[in-house]
Amino acid sequence: MTHTDLNQEGQWPVFDEQSLFESTSREVAQHVEVAPEMARTTALGAMAMACQGVFDVAFPNGHKVPTSLNLLTIADSGERKTALENWFFNPIRDFQTAQKKERQRSIQIYQRKLKNWENDEKALQKKRNQAFVKDENLEEIERQQVKLDGQKPQPLRLRQLIYENVTPSALAFSLYENIPLACLVSSEAGNIFEGRAFQDLPMFNLIWSGSPIEVARRSTESFTLESPRLSLVLMAQPKVIDRFLEKRGSEARDNGFLSRLIVIKPVSRIGSRKGGRPVDPDTTKAFSDRVTHLLTEAFAILDSERQQRHILRFNPSAKMRWQEIQQSIEQDMAEHKQYYHARDHASKLIDNITRVAAILHAFEGYEGDINSDVLEYAYQLCKRYSNHYLKYLAGEPEIVTVTNELVREIRRLGSPGTERTFHFKKTPFLQKGRGQTRYPQKLDQALQLLTSLGHLRMIGPYDYEFSETILLHASPALKNGIDYHVNELLLFEQQEYQQTTGGRFNGHVEKNIHHSIPQIDIHANVIKPPYKSENR
Questions:
Q1: Which residue in 31, 407, 476, 488 is deepest, having the highest Cβ count within 10 Å?
Q2: What does the alpha-carbon distance between residue 168 and residue 192 come to, in Å, rounded to a whole number?
Q3: C-alpha–C-alpha distance, residues 97 and 93, integer Å
Q4: 127 has pLDDT over 90
Q5: Which residue has the higher pLDDT, 14 or 482?
Q6: Relative orientation angle of helices 36-51 and 20-32, to the nearest 10 degrees
Q7: ∠ CA(152), CA(157), CA(162), 5° rounding?
Q8: Model pLDDT for residues 406-444, shown as the tens digit of each residue
Q9: 140 vs 3, 116, 147, CA distance in Å?
């Protein structure tokens, strides 16, 4: 099993090429002509659906969680989302269809058994009435009635596994009335994000955790949904997600719904597709057979008296690695670290890593406990998903928004100096500044961030110097593009320190530009670099 370096843009970790997960994902990706990571994500959704009814997984401290996943793929129209979903979810739909047919066939048998039971009940009741009239002992008859009550035939429950658009209340009742095992699936999830399905986001959080759900009703009987298992496998266009975040982003972020999502925005293949190639039928059949086998086992557990799922655990070396990963995530939640502004997401990251590792282990049929290789792959994969969450779903931290505004205002209100610099005082920003730079506290925070990034320094009691490149000779305390992403500034990796002959110029310059004299429009107070970088 191997994985690639996550710091290399565009590369994703690769699982064992002989595994059902990796081999089927590659076959389908090449046939449908989508990015392999997009196929892997959809495959994980089908695998979670198959595993969640059979397995739970325990943290090293013993805490148990479901193997359900909430997956979101963000892709434009024409990215073949529906075709991809069909390849991985058709086995589940076929299994569901077969179960419904079996239920239909069982109805006649159930009705006959129920009629016989009702006749027996009437006979006992008649016997009891006669005994009551004769003032005979009713104890034995009533004991027989209690026994008969326990033998009342029950219809085979509707085995609905896939839901595509349903209200939260209807979903909860269906999971209670039928089977507490399902998947909310949509290759065009606009109707889910913008419809009634997500009216009750906290309910989906409870289900993700496997917690019981109390449903109180006015007109009908209230109920408790015990130990539900539900995965979300949703694909939606960027504009759908943008509208959802605009309308309900704060709510979904505050209640923890967003933080539980595994997010990917795959590289588009539109414009470079060549027709694909046929899939290997043996590979896809092996994947489908494994899905069917696990669903069959899940139903056997549901039909059993104890309804006890298997508990997956980590082996000793994997437990040590798990602790290291958890500690690394915790450290990245510190101030100015990767998850400082996304602590809610980071707090759920180790949970998702654990679930993905368990799903891979269980679906592949590996023996024993989860090993460190599987855990390491799950970690590398989920870190990549995490990067996409931060980039496409978390939203820009307020401090970054204000700092971007401040840089633009410095170019507008500051006095141009030499070597792509500006000089300014704070007062004009408080009086004439645009946006949030007019507020003293936020202005001070933005000034501090620019200082930490190396682009600002004080040159007098009230005077500041700002530079388009890093002012320091050494590396700054924080690096743009690593610790923060301020779009108005050059990335740290786009700059290099340079010292010219004779010491005429010592400082950082943009790579491949070296010491170029910038053009300055004095009237507009806007600096014009020799060329426009695509990352600026």
A1: 407
A2: 11
A3: 6
A4: no
A5: 14
A6: 130
A7: 170
A8: 999 999 999 999 878 999 999 999 999 999 999 999 999
A9: 70, 21, 11
